[in-house]
Amino acid sequence: MDYLAGLNPQQRAAVENTTGPSMIVAGAGSGKTRVITYRVAYLIEKGIDPFNILVLTFTNKASKDMRERIMKVVGTEAKNIWMGTFHSVFAKILRVEAERIGYPSNFTIYDTDDSKSLIRSILRELQLDDKLYNANFVYNRISSAKNNLISYSEYLESAEIQSEDISNK
């Protein structure tokens, strides 16, 4: 397929780069998806195993569009490409490798709403006053501790950490 003919010099350089990872950053309508699609096709054409190709997007919509476009160009080989959103691809990797890190492969990933709902349930189960122990506040404390790499045991052991605002640590 002569897909390189329709590319400008910068796009062509991005497609033909086989030395390592690439991140394509450009404005809307500039041909990013086309460049990535053609780069995947070029890599496969040059003998790269599709299993060794990783294509990441930010949204499910972009992921679906990317998968459809790549399928049109490379055919069934696209099924072996690691392709999807950052979250979906890394969740898949975690499921495959979960036991290596001591987790079952059927773990559940909670989003913000799921997490807050669980916290509300726990607060009710413990019969804690939701005015004193607001689910949003508890969620933000947990999130802040995680973002600051404060472990559960560190948090429990430190009255100072428990009482201070840890959002800026």
Question: What's this, in brief?
Answer:
Helix content is 51%, strand content 5%. By secondary structure, it is mostly helical.
Structure description:
- By secondary structure, the chain is mainly alpha-helical.
- Helix content is about 50%, strand content about 5%.
- It has eight helices and two strands, in the order ααβαβααααα.
- It has helices spanning about 10-15, 30-45, 60-75, 85-95, 110-125, 135-145, 150-155, 160-165, and strands at about 55, 80-85.
- Helix 2 (about 30-45) crosses helix 3 (about 60-75).
- It is elongated and about 65 Å long.
Keywords:
elongated, 169 residues, two-stranded parallel sheet, mainly alpha, single chain, 5% strand, 2 domains, 8 helices, Rossmann fold
Quickly name the level 1 CATH class of the largest domain. Answer: Alpha Beta
Number of domains: 2
Roughly what fraction of the amino acids lie in strands? under 5%
Query: Total number of β-strand segments?
Result: 2
What overall form do the CA principal axes indicate? elongated
Low-confidence stretches: none
What is the SS-derived class?
mainly alpha
Second CATH tier, the architecture of the largest domain: 3-Layer(aba) Sandwich
Mean pLDDT: 89
